[in-house]
Write a structure and sequence with these properties.
There is one protein chain. With 176 residues, this protein is α+β, with helices and mostly antiparallel strands. It has two domains: 84 residues, Beta-grasp domain (Ubiquitin-like (UB roll), Roll), CATH 3.10.20; 63 residues, DNA polymerase, domain 1, CATH 1.10.150. Helices cover 24% and strands 15% of the residues. Strand 1 and strand 2 form a beta hairpin. The chain starts with 9 loop residues before the first strand and ends in a 19-residue tail after the last helix. The protein binds FE2/S2 (inorganic) cluster (FES) (2 copies).
Amino acid sequence: MKAIAKPTGIVELSMEVNGEPVSATVPARTLLADFLRDRLRLTGTHLGCEHGICGACTILMDGNPVRSCIMLAAQADGASLTTVEGITPKEGLGPLQRAFKDHHGLQCGFCTPGILMTLTAADPKDYPDDDAIRELLAGNLCRCTGYHNIVAAVRAAWGRDVRGAEGERPGREGDA
Ligand code: FES
Ligand code: FES
């Protein structure tokens, strides 16, 4: 379904968000990230740069990762959306989240929801080694971790040796 703006600049939307039907009326200029955060209170979707660079706002639209800060809510009319709340069990953590916790794949955590969504959409077979994992995550900027433990967490979540091909011990880059 395509949302059509009324002369008032208002659009009517209906979509599925985390498996639940959602209908809303919003100004046509409403950004998708703002709609999710402010209207639906799904604040796990973070806003960093707000111009499509950092990846913090990544969600899935019909199974594909998109940057919700550079999309209008109207563009998601009729779509099925998944946010980080949608991959989080009612109690505890999902396997990817558990791996990030266990292997210290985050510090401030601001980038983490976007990274989790990028990984959720990825098929591990397409990312057979650490270089491929780093390339997959190149669109999700993390200013804290140096990515070392993020890659270790992905290895663990994907059932690989958490020490990596070189047998390296998980730890922050630069650790002694
Ligand atoms: S907030 Fe959307 S890419 Fe940075
Ligand atoms: S953990 Fe702080 S930006 Fe990634």
